[in-house]
Amino acid sequence: MPEVIRQLPENVANQIAAGEVIQRPASAVKELMENAVDAGASRIDVRVLDAGRTLIHVMDNGVGMVEADAKRCFDRHATSKITSADDLFTIVSKGFRGEALASIASIAHVELKTRHTSDECGTQLNMEGGALAQETLVAMEVGTQIAVRHLFFNVPARRNFLKSDAVEMRHVIDEFHRVALAHEAIYFTLTHNDSELFDLRPSTLRKRVIGVFGSKYDERLVPVEESTDVLGVKGFVGKPAFARRTRGEQFLFVNQRFVKHGLIHRTIMNAYEGLLPPGQYPLYVLFLTIDPARLDVNIHPTKTEIKFDEDQHIQSLLLPSIRRGLGKHAVAPSLDFDQESSLNIAPLPKDRVVAEPVVQVNTDYNPFQSKAASGESSGGSSGGGLRPGRGQMDAWKSLYEKAWQPEGEVGPVAHEEHAMQSSASGEVGAQLEAGDEVVVKQRPLFQLQTKYIVTATKSGLLVIDQHRAHQRILYEELVRQLEPEGAPAATQQLLFPAAIDLNAADQLFVLQSRDWLAKFGLLVAEHDDGVEVQGMPLEADTTPESLIQAILEERAAEVAGVSREERVAARLAASMAVRVGKALKPEEMVDLVDRLFGCSTPALDPFGRTVIVNFESNELEQRFR
Ligand code: ADP
Ligand code: MG
């Protein structure tokens, strides 16, 4: 047998490595920019021609290289950044594999000009197909300039595989963004075919993000910052209203390195739970800092994937800090309104016992039905407050009276523990004194087109969709009743139970769901050819048939992440919520607004539709220009 195994020539090995490291012009842009960052540059100029096909030029004012290093930097595994494997665990530089320049030089024509801080003049090297073609002395500023021409000139397969200039340029811009976002203190520019695309001066992170995405993003950003001994997170997440159906605005950096990490992405998405309809992605630009010893960046040649020792730890820091950030910005009111609130209606604790402050004659009121219901109705934390059962009236009355007592005699308001109000009624504003949060002594509220509730806040104007708001409130109350300790919803016993014919499968399903349906106040029993509805949720504004029908529809539907019970709760909430066209009294509006802001997700109804529109005062001011 003839021998067949040979050592590959160095250049071929480099070309193979290049296949992994340099997939397209954008990869070269990334590697060269990262080298410039590693060299301590404070200014980095990137210029490309034809989306990088013809030329990629990266110029920096970093430390530069002495002549010997300049020659060595194109060798495979030539790096100044680590000397032993142990160093891998303390990596703070972008590069360390020593592959980028070797790879690039093997598949392009490279001209390197570099001058080290300790030298009077610089070195120019011209590389062709991985070999040194020419060396000269040059006069230049301290720093490094690398021009990469004719990328993939000797790898036609790669060249043919490239997409249109527009697509390739998109990739170049993406890589440029990733580096620029992670280093707001460095001055970056990007020029394509002589048009300057970005001129990013050193700035704060917020300004850098706006510089990258555009000034429209200023109002979309919600700051996040939190740290523990081992871990820190800072950056911005986007307001849910600006989430998109497509990905592309999600940036996660670990120790200033852009990474992709499925678990962290899911954690961030979880923080938005209930704030976004399915299939939408919020913007985020988040920076994790973590002891390098705790992570392994070495699992992928382009280093965009990493492994952590402690995923758990990261999740438990990230999720609450994003929630808090969103909460502070009124996107999802939370209990921590300690700073920077743009909304001054004090949030209410989730478990607050909701009083029913409504004086209103229920025209649908049926004395017989109600009497039958009184045994079941537990009042207190039950369903909606707009058409309360009888038992709830007394509770409301006493609260109502309290609220009208002169200031000072009103029940205590928690100052530290965020404004917690004991009542929901007329002059609620007078009671809320939690620091600066509440400036409105008497909350102005009015109804618009018997559809919206309009109210002023410290920073502008809120317009609330009454029907959707009530749906959200009822939905959360219903879902709470599903919890083991949740008290069942008030039921209105039907004087004449409604028999509903169902096929065997539907019948079985409804009967199997009996227990949790009862928690919603829907009482069903077995019946010859179907079921019998014996009690309806107190406020259900629909027939027993259509409720059962809705439940059966939800059985068929499959929605990821939302249980069938929750979907039925949403249906019920929709049927119970106050309608558009219904005039609301001031106290009803106050109640609705208060309860809405006691919800965990006030901004969206159970179907993901907008409940609240916030007009910031600067928006108003702009209109008056
Ligand atoms: P790595 O970044 O993984 O070390 P590279 O192939 O990208 O490998 O670069 C090899 C070496 O060349 C680097 O370790 C660094 O010492 C030197 N180098 C590359 N680019 C620059 C630059 N812009 N300024 C100064 N030194 C550089
Ligand atoms: Mg490098």
Molecular structure report:
The chain has 625 residues and is of the alpha+beta class. It folds into four domains: 10-202, Heat Shock Protein 90, CATH 3.30.565; 208-328, Ribosomal Protein S5, domain 2; 382-404 and 413-469 and 584-623, 2-Layer Sandwich (formyl-coa transferase, domain 3); 491-537 and 542-576, MutL, C-terminal domain, regulatory subdomain (Ribosomal Protein S8, Chain: A, domain 1, 2-Layer Sandwich), CATH 3.30.1370.100. The protein has 18 helices and 22 strands. It has helices at 10-21, 25-38, 67-72, 100-106, 156-161, 165-182, 205-213, 262-271, 311-328, 367-374, 391-403, 466-482, 504-512, 514-519, 544-556, 564-576, 586-597, 617-623, and strands at residues 43-49, 55-60, 109-115, 122-128, 131-138, 143-149, 187-192, 195-200, 221-227, 231-238, 250-254, 257-259, 284-290, 295-296, 307-308, 445-448, 452-457, 460-465, 491-501, 523-527, 530-537, 612-616. The strands form five sheets. An eight-stranded mixed β-sheet has the order 5-4-3-6-2-1-7-8. The longest helix is centred in the first third of the chain and has 18 residues, at 165-182. The termini are far apart. Residues 31, 34-35, 95, 100 line the site of magnesium ion.
